[in-house]
Structure to design on (144 residues):
């Protein structure tokens, strides 16, 4: 199913890109900012591992990926970002919450074997990825 491959590709791209882009922020930041970036990246890398084995044709696999993403969101919400990272940090969390909701819908669509729903979900996932990438870009702005 091409839709399921698209969903998996979007998820893997989203999480892999985030860790690489946020890592680039550290060049001129203070230790506190570097600590934030380090923790942020560790959380994202942990979540990315769950998506490596994601099988979007298996509802249990989708549920596991969603649970891992939700755990990452909880950890990110506990981080205290430096002032100039607050807005992009919140935008990133919001995008990840949207992605989690979409994953839940993907699991339901797979259970229902509904390709029409999967097509709509792929579009929403792409929108969440764009929002997430925008937040990462804002984190990197004028910080390298």
């Amino acid at each position: 199913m091409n839709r399921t491959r698209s969903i998996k590709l979007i998820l893997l791209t989203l999480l892999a890109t985030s860790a690489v882009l946020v890592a680039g922020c550290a060049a001129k930041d203070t230790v506190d900012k570097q600590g934030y970036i380090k923790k942020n990246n560790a959380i994202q890398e942990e979540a990315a591992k769950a998506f490596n084995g994601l099988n979007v044709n298996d509802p249990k696999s989708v549920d596991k990926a969603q649970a891992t993403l939700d755990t990452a969101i909880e950890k990110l919400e506990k981080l205290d970002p430096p002032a100039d990272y607050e807005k992009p940090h919140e935008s990133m969390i919001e995008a990840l919450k949207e992605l989690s909701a979409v994953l839940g819908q993907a699991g339901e669509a797979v259970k229902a074997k509904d390709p029409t729903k999967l097509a709509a979900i792929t579009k929403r996932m792409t929108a969440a990825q764009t929002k997430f990438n925008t937040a990462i870009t804002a984190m990197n702005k004028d910080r390298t």
